[in-house]
Amino acid sequence: MTIGVAGPVNLQILDWDLKDTNLPATNSFPLTSHFINALLKRGFKVIAYTNSTEIEEPMVLERGNLKVCISRQKPQPGRRFFLYEVEDLRKMMAAHPADFISAFWSYEFAWAALKTGKPTVVSLHDVAFQILRKIPDMFRLVRWMINYIVVSKADFLLANSSYTYNQLDRKTKSKTRIIDNFYPSTLEQRLSANAQKGNYIITVAQGFTHRKNIETGIQAFAILRKRFPDLEYYLVGVDSEEGGLAQQYAQKHNLTDGIRFIGPLPYDEVFRLIQNARVLLHPSREESFGMVLLEAMIARTPVVGGKDSGYIPHLLNYGKAGLLCDVNSPDSMATEVGRILSDEELYQSLVKAGYTYAEDNFSEDVIVDQHLKYYGEILGKPVQPGFPLHEPEGTFRRNTIPTAK
After folding, report:
1. For residues 85 and 51, what is the distance between their CA atoms, to the nearest angstrom?
2. Which mean pLDDT values do the consecutive 10-residue runs of the chain (405 residues) have?
3. What single string gives the DSSP state of each residue in 231-300?
4. Which parts of the sequence belong to the Glycosyltransferase subfamily 4-like N-terminal domain (predicted)?
């Protein structure tokens, strides 16, 4: 059986030996790639459908049981309702068909998959209407409209957490199954055996927005520095680079002392910084899941997150696997981080509890098996690979090709 996976794909962390090849930059999200790797490891043939702004013609990369189909994306796709991107993806899916498609997010990738007529399940990793309410701009309006089309047309939906599911309307809930996100089985292999904790805390967030709430984290760190004057704060992710919005805010309020504005980094480098941090502070006001917290728990780095921040309380086992705070209060955040830094017994208990809770509830084996079982229910038969286990050996083919009409 061939499973198609449509969505943003990080080509650099796929399970193939092309990481050092000159690959085009794609819209990427690590979880999609981890899911593809998990299917390959179980012997499935996988076709990944993603897109890029860097190619002029559709591109197909093939290695062993993995085929990656890269469609085109033009600048400012929201102004065209993503119609060009959807059609380019659909043509690629028609030219390189899978037996079943798992589409990540309820936007252009899922819309294209539904247009093929192939059995498709759409994963909801956010709730478009709630995002539109919080960020009422034209781009989010377009995204909500696409989401409305996709959710209306889809027969099978997945919610990545109970928090996401509970925000859905009754009709949408009736065709939605809850299957949590997961951490990859290879994550522990990325851990450094001789890693040493640095004297810093870390926040990893994509965007300096009201939702991500980095400004309150910066305020909290200023309070922490009074008690721990040598402590540093690493800010990683979009808008947290030198000269970015986070640094502009800190400079405006004279709060730059001890902060390193690092910005976006490759996945492995981010994980290394998380492993070496003393605490991961997650100031986000809302998360449908919270992958970076899960990664920190596996890396044995204690976590502080919001007590009302979407799925975060459940992910931290309501304060047993990580500490909860009021993310709207710099004092509350500083207090909880300070508790971990000053209490070795608490520190070690959170390390152990966080790792155990993550392993028991969000491991690759637990979650991917739930996906495959659900696919079997949709298709009315067990989902079986029918292929030998994926090995990197084989002939690599790289083509730019015309897609199907």
Report:
1. 8
2. 96 82 86 96 96 96 94 95 98 98 97 98 92 89 97 97 94 97 89 88 95 97 97 97 98 98 94 97 95 96 97 97 98 98 97 96 94 96 69 46 44
3. -EEEEESTT-BTTSHHHHHHHHTT--TTEEEEE---HHHHHHHHHH-SEEE---S--SS-HHHHHHHHTT
4. 34-182
DSSP category for residue 397: E
Global pTM? Answer: 0.85
Q: Give the chain's largest Cα–Cα span.
A: 65
At residue 59's C-alpha, the angle toward residues 58 and 63, to 5°, is 155
pLDDT at 396: 45
Residues 168, 194: one domain? no
Strands 397-400 and 59-63: antiparallel
Per the structure, the complete domain to which residue 32 belongs is given by: 2-183+363-400
Domain count, the chain: 2
